[in-house]
Protein: SGNH hydrolase-type esterase domain-containing protein
Amino acid sequence: MNRTTRRLAVLGSALAGLLTPLLLQPVQAAAPAYVALGDSYASGTGTRSYISDGTSCQRSTSAYPSLIAAARGYALNFRACSGATIPDVTNAQLGALTSATSYVSISVGGNDAGFANVLTTCAQPWWASNCDGAINTAQSFISNTLPSRLTTLYSQIRSRAPYAKVVVVGYPRIFNGEDCNAFTWFSPAEQSRLNQTADLLNSRLAAAASAAGFSFANPTSRFIGHAVCAADEWINGLSSPISESYHPKANGHAGGYTPSVSPLLTGAAVAVTAQVVAESSASADEQAALQRRYAAADRTIEPETFVAPDLTTPEARRDARRAGVDIETFLERSARR
Structure:
């Protein structure tokens, strides 16, 4: 063997020694893809802290999709957006699903039923609104129109993400029979009917989910004792900014939604520890950059926002006169509640 041949042999042995450990290392699998679809109850409206993605979707790292993704190491595409209806999910969100999607959560139906408008109506005094009429209209829609729309949507989700675990997420009861806010006038009977409407919506969501082969996460029991005006409140009452009103707070997502959704989605309950919260928060910039790619589509979604009663308008004063109500005295008493 000549000198050149010996040098090449030595070099080859050295390279083999360097490369062999690298070649023997296992290839790291890509993080499972998780797509969160839906409306404000999924995006995190009510938590008061949102990623800067150039939209009005109000996506929060305190919301359950972000917490679950952080805890499990999933690659989250956070498409849920405040105000989204079934057509919005279909047109602006389903494009994120692929055959490689492993997990999907979907929360939608409340805006289709006009729940923000119902709350706006029922928050007014009895003499200024028709709360029962608004609730009746919403319940009729939920029972007669919504189911077929859910069936179509869920079929499209399964078609686009054929191998994904899909969890349909319901809505909590908002009220506990007490209205502690000075300038809303939900009666105990109205609150009861509004909670019944949430239950009706959940029953239709659960039925459609079952028919599609999806799981249904019902947060109702987790939120009992934590409704608006409870001592340990997990849902905002009348708030500023107004868009925060009647949506779960950060503690509602951590203590209510996350333990309801995570066992069905991931196979085990997620504990929202300080580390999970920190890791979720650290994902804000990366998630914002991802969602900016969809900003044009997201801007087609119109937020559905509760409107606080205004009894200073000519219409309100007219209604008060017709009902024999002294509006100035009424407002003074309301301010002392």
Summary: The domain at 30-309 is CATH 3.40.50.1110 (Rossmann fold).
